[in-house]
Specification:
430 residues; alpha/beta; 2 domains; three-stranded mixed β-sheet
């Protein structure tokens, strides 16, 4: 019989069964995170409401002490010491956060078909840490390559963080890391949504991770650009929208969720944190590092259009602002172009933890999700001398603001090479 007239295989029938409409509702059902000021959602949220920074003094090679957002989670909760040594810091963060998300989701993990699980993690960069470490190590031995670790290749392949998650959780479905600069956390959620709607998986483990503070190169590069923050008080160093800002505080971290189709989540009686109702990604096509407010505003408008809502329907905008002058100004222009005249509150999480790069967008979204329950928008701290060029409508400055009710949150994440991403979530309603 010709292969063109053969009966469909069992695999074909299963794929067809699991291929769903592109408008299927997608929800977040479990959360795991590691941040410089909290290693679970409750702790992270409380520190955001209390104004507690996670920025500290930090030592890196070849430079005087710098400032950084450093995570302090239990690496051995879900990994053995040998696995931590063999793997990467980004992998450890991803394993911790993914396992926490699965536990939080209430999924009966032993009963989940692991070939129907996908892992989609955003990253800003990967491999720099391991390569720097190996070069430093062989420099102590006359550059003898026999000292070079045989673990280097699996540590530095771009799919490493997501791959380490599959090893930890026994996932045999697809895994990807998505290189999207500092738009990567949102990109992880967007990829999960798309794969669920296409029927490529039934459960997605998605979000973003970063190990950036473990490479001295990122500090040196930002310093050479005049974009590395300094301050005598580490807690006051990250200062988006403030005239006294002097650059980025580099941070590590991870924000990872279990994401499912609403029908599947309801069938198992899952707790639902939020529904993803809109998303967009676009490109500036204008500069390597300088942002473009016009393209950013277009990205926001596209996400609103896909969500079927107006700007005035958004209760909170989680801003990307990194505490670089041009970055803050351009995003402020974009936000004013979209939200001027609305009641929408705007806040910023980097003021607390620094810039967690590939994890930034994910952590910033997750830190705002409890607003659906408590009605409070956390503040932007360290805003002591507001930059008039960044004057934003309804910017939540220094103290949390009780909005009474929060039903919709929009999360901005933008990155180098002009990549922009927006994710919109709403409070779940049946």
């Amino acid at each position: 019989m010709s292969r063109y007239s053969a009966q469909p295989s069992a695999a074909d029938l299963l794929w067809k069964k699991n291929t769903l409409a592109l408008d299927d509702r997608i929800v977040i059902t479990g959360i795991g995170l590691a941040s410089p000021n909290g290693n679970n959602l409750a702790e992270f949220r409380q520190n955001l409401l209390d104004g507690k920074s996670g920025v500290v003094d930090y030592e890196t090679r070849y430079m005087p002490p710098v400032l950084a957002g450093v995570c302090n989670f239990d690496e051995l909760r879900y990994q053995k010491r040998k696995e931590v040594r063999r793997g990467t810091r980004a992998g450890s963060i991803a394993v911790y956060c993914s396992n926490e998300a699965v536990v939080d989701s209430g999924l009966d993990w032993n009963s989940v078909e692991k070939n129907r699980v996908g892992v989609y993690l955003g990253i800003t960069e990967h491999g720099n840490v391991e390569t720097e470490n190996e070069i430093y190590e062989i420099s102590q031995f006359g550059y003898d390559t026999k000292v070079w670790s045989h673990h280097h290749n699996p540590r530095t392949v771009a799919n490493n963080p997501a791959g380490e998650v599959t090893l930890s959780l026994g996932v045999t479905g697809p895994h990807l890391t998505i290189g999207a600069a500092c738009a990567a956390g949102n990109a992880g959620f967007i990829q999960a949504l798309q794969m669920l709607r296409l029927g490529e998986c039934d459960v997605a483990i998605a979000g973003g991770v970063s190990e950036s503070i473990h490479t001295f190169g990122i500090f040196a590069s930002f310093q050479s650009q005049g974009a590395l923050a300094t301050h005598e008080d580490p807690a006051r160093a990250s200062r988006p929208f403030d005239t006294q800002r002097n650059g980025i505080v580099v941070a590590e971290g991870g924000g990872i969720c279990t994401v499912e189709r609403l029908t599947d989540a309801l069938a198992r009686g899952a707790k639902i944190y939020a529904e993803i109702i809109g998303h967009a990604m676009n490109s500036d096509a204008s500069d390597f590092v300088l942002p473009n407010s016009t393209r950013q505003a277009e990205c926001v408008h596209l996400a609103l259009s896909r969500a079927g809502i107006s700007a005035n329907d958004v209760d909170i905008v989680s801003s990307h602002a990194t505490a670089t002058e041009q970055g803050d100004i351009e995003e402020a222009k974009a936000l004013k172009a979209v939200f001027d005249g609305t009641r929408t509150a705007i806040n910023n999480t980097k003021s607390f933890i620094g810039h967690a790069m590939g994890a930034a967008g994910a952590l910033e979204l997750l830190g705002n999700l409890p607003s659906f329950d408590d009605g409070i928008a956390h503040a932007t701290i360290n805003l002591e001398n507001p930059d008039s060029r960044c004057a934003l409508p309804n910017l939540v400055a220094n103290e949390p603001r009780n909005l009474g009710e929060v039903n919709c949150i929009l999360n901005n994440s933008f990155g180098m090479l002009g990549i922009n991403s927006v994710v919109i979530v709403k409070k779940y309603e049946s």
